[in-house]
Amino acid sequence: MNSIRHEGIGMTSLRTRERLVNRLIEQGIQRIDVLEAIRTTPRHLFIDEALAHRAYEDVALPIGFNQTISQPYIVARMTEAILNAAPDDAVILEIGTGCGYQTAILAGSVKHVYSIERIRPLLERTRKRLRELKIRNVSVKCGDGNLGWPQHAPYDCIITTCAASEVPPALLEQLKEGGVLVIPVGGRDQQELKLYRKTDGEISAETLEAVRFVPLLGGVEN
Questions:
Q1: pLDDT tens, 70-91?
Q2: What are phi and psi of 99, to 5 degrees?
Q3: d(CA 170, CA 158)
């Protein structure tokens, strides 16, 4: 991939990314690895070129297919919550690959990310992008995220980038003992980012903050 396109210029330059990182620090993001991933990952390559000048604003942006790329603060917040609970060689399940930005941020700090996306054309575009960026510790598939990916379970942590009205039982079943699930829960008008932890087979819940995500839907869209 062209290095200038990767590194960015003007509103996609490293200086612009540094300003975003400083905002995230002011908002309470503490982990150095998360901040470094946000700084070095070219978010402008994960969105339409027409919106590239807004890539390092702390806002969600459309990516087509009625989906969005989450605002950097939420990506950082969810990643930090996952990594705070994950071992160094963690294997992560992600529900909702989307454009692959959250996937890429996670991939830099864990052993492997298994990611599921229900919209096949979006997934094919994202698979190509991850390959171009040489992110090799990620496996993606088209499928129903409510069912998880049992072939590679149990997972150290699970992250869901879409909101469920109720936590899918399969995700809790595929969570390793001591692992955490970070997921937005609620309807379209009111959602909370929740952290579920499995301890001695029991599930405890913690509310992190109010959020707004696209809904977790079933089935596959071709």
A1: 999 999 999 999 999 999 899 9
A2: -80, -10
A3: 11
Cα–Cα distance between 192 and 210 in angstroms, integer?
A: 4
DSSP secondary structure string for all residues of 121-166 = HHHHHHHHHHHHTT--SEEEEES-GGG--GGG--EEEEEESSBBSS
68 φ, ψ to 5°? -135, 155
Query: How much of the chain is helix, strand and coil, in % rounded to 5?
Result: 40, 30, 30
More confident residue, 162 or 4: 162
Q: Specify which residues 164 forms β-bridges with.
A: 185
Which residue type sits at 53?
Answer: H
Backbone angles phi, psi at 49, to 5 degrees: -60, -30
The Cα 41–Cα 59 span in angstroms is 16
- Residue count (the chain): 222
Q: Could you give all domains of the chain from N- to C-terminal order, each with its CATH number?
A: 64-211 (3.40.50.150)
Annotation says 70 is catalytic: yes
pLDDT of residue 10: 52
Considering only CA atoms, which of 91, 39, 48, 85 is closest in space to residue 69?
48
**164: its two tokens:** 């469920």
| Active-site hit among 70, 115, 139, 165 | 70
Can you give the pTM of this predicted structure?
Answer: 0.93
- Identify the burial level of 111 via C-beta atoms within 10 angstroms of its C-beta, where 0-12 means exposed, 13-18 middle and 19 or more buried: middle
